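Obj: model holo form, ligand = thymidine-5'-triphosphate.
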Amino acid sequence: MRPRIIIHIDMDYFFAQVEERDNPRFKGKPIVVGAEPQEGHGRGVVSTANYIARKYGIHSALPISQAYKLCPQAIFLPPDIERYVEVSNKIMEIVRKHAFPVEQLSLDEAYVDVSSIGTFAKAEKLALDMKEEILQNEQLTCTVGVGPNKMIAKIACSFAKPDGLKVVLEKDAKAFVGPLDIERMPGIGEKTASSLRKLGLRIVFDLQQLSLERMKELFGNGGEDMYQRVRGIDDTFVQTEHEVKSIGKDHTFQVDTRDPEQIVAVCNELCSQVGEEVENTGVAFKTITVVCRFSGFETHTKSKTLATYARSKGVLTREAMKLLLQFIVSNLKPIRLIGVRVSHLS
Ligand code: TTP
Ligand code: MG
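Output (holo C-alpha cells):
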C-alpha cells in the first residue's frame, strides 16, 4: 500500500526575517517585532524575534517590557502586517504550484499532502525543492518536516528549526515521539499536563505504557485518539479549502464487526443522515469519501469524485456502498468505525 506522506512547512522567525531581509543593516543584530517598548514601559507583547534575540530569552507573546529588559539594544519594530501578507501570498503560491492538496494554517505555515508522490525519498526531494525555491525567489529561509501524518510532520519541523529539514518515517514515528514532553502532544495543554505529571506521567513514552481503558479514564472521549497519537498515529486530513466545507457523519460499533447486514445498515443510515443535511443546506457535492477504521485502529479512506455535481441521496448511497464494499473485500479485519462524507461542495 502507498504510504501517507505529509510535509509541514513553516517560515523561520517570519515577521522578523522579512524585516531583516528588507533592511540589510539589521543583519546580525537582535530584532524584535511587536508592541512599542517605550524604554521598558510599553504595554503589549512580542509578535516574534529573530534567533539572535531569542538567545536573550525573548520569544513570541512575551510582554514587550520584559523583552526590553532582556535586551535593550535590540532593534524593536512595529509589525507591518500588510507587507507580511504580501510575502506570505508569494510563498504559498510556491507551495501550491506543485499541485498537491495544501492546508494553510497561518501566514507562514502549511501542510501539504504529498502521498501521491509515492515515496518518502521523493517527498524529501520535493520539500528541498520548495525550500530552495522560496530562498531563491524570496530570499527567506523556512524549515520543513516530512512525516506519515500531520502531527509527526509538524513535530519533525520543530526539531529542524531554523533552516532545516527532518524526515520521520512511519516505522520510526512511535520511537520519535517517545522521549517528548507530554505537552508536545496536540490535545495536552498546560493544565492537563500538570495533572498528568502528578501521576508520574512526564514524557510520551510514559503514556505509551498505558492501556486503552486507562487512556479513556484519563482523557474521556478523547482517550482513543490520544492512545493513537502517543504512538505517532494521527488520521486527521490535510484540509484544503474545498474539504473544509464538507458534510460527514460517522458511527463507532459497540463491538467490532464483520457482519455485512449490520455494516450495510449503518452505512445506509449514515448516507441518509448526510443526504438530509445536504438537502437542508441546499448544496451539491462532487466527492464522496468513506472512512473505515478496523480493529487495531488501522484507518483507511476511499474517495470517489463524480464527473458532475450531485445532490441526491440515491447517488450518495450507491457510491458510498461501492466504496464500502471495496474495504470489506480488501481487508478481512473486523470493522470498528465507518464514516461517510461529501466534499467539493457548491
Ligand atoms: P511562528 O511560525 O510560530 O513563529 P516564527 O515564524 O516567528 O518563528 P519560528 O517558526 O522560526 O519558530 O509564527 C509565525 C508568525 O506569526 C510570527 O513571525 C509572528 C506571528 N506570531 C505572533 O504575532 N504572535 C505569536 O504569539 C506567534 C506565535 C506568532
Ligand atoms: Mg514560523
